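It is time I had a proper look at our fold encoding. Can you supply me with one protein entry, sequence and fold together? It will help me judge whether the discrete encoding reads sensibly. Leave the record below and I will have a look:
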Amino acid sequence: MSIFELVKLIHILSAAVLFGTGAGIAFFMLSAWRSRQMAWLAMTARHVVLADFLFTTTAVIVQPISGIALIVLAGHDPFSGWLLFTYALYVLVGVCWLPVVWIQIKVRKLATQVGEGAWEQIDKLMRVWFVLGWPAFGGVMGIYLLMIIKP
């Protein structure tokens, strides 16, 4: 296996982890929120925050490192239009993901409280979380498309 193939494998696997973990987190958080069961939401949020830290954060770090290595190894112009658009989408995804992580941490804390108004606060936060998920998901899909077609 060449160094290029190894870096490409790492890049593809980390992209799969990024997308797969994001899709799984979205499914479980949405399911727990819609259940309106505070205990389920608390446990789910606890696991989601841990999964985001272990898997998503790792993939978010590996992606640009392996991507830059692939650009150099393949001899691509790092300032070509399709790569600039890819960078912009990656930033968009990050701009959506960072508040989502904060929301998940906040929901984890609120879901362990049984006081007045906790569920109302969670609902407000989760609505923002839900809205931010769409451009993040679309951005990741756009990046996948650009990596495949390299226009």
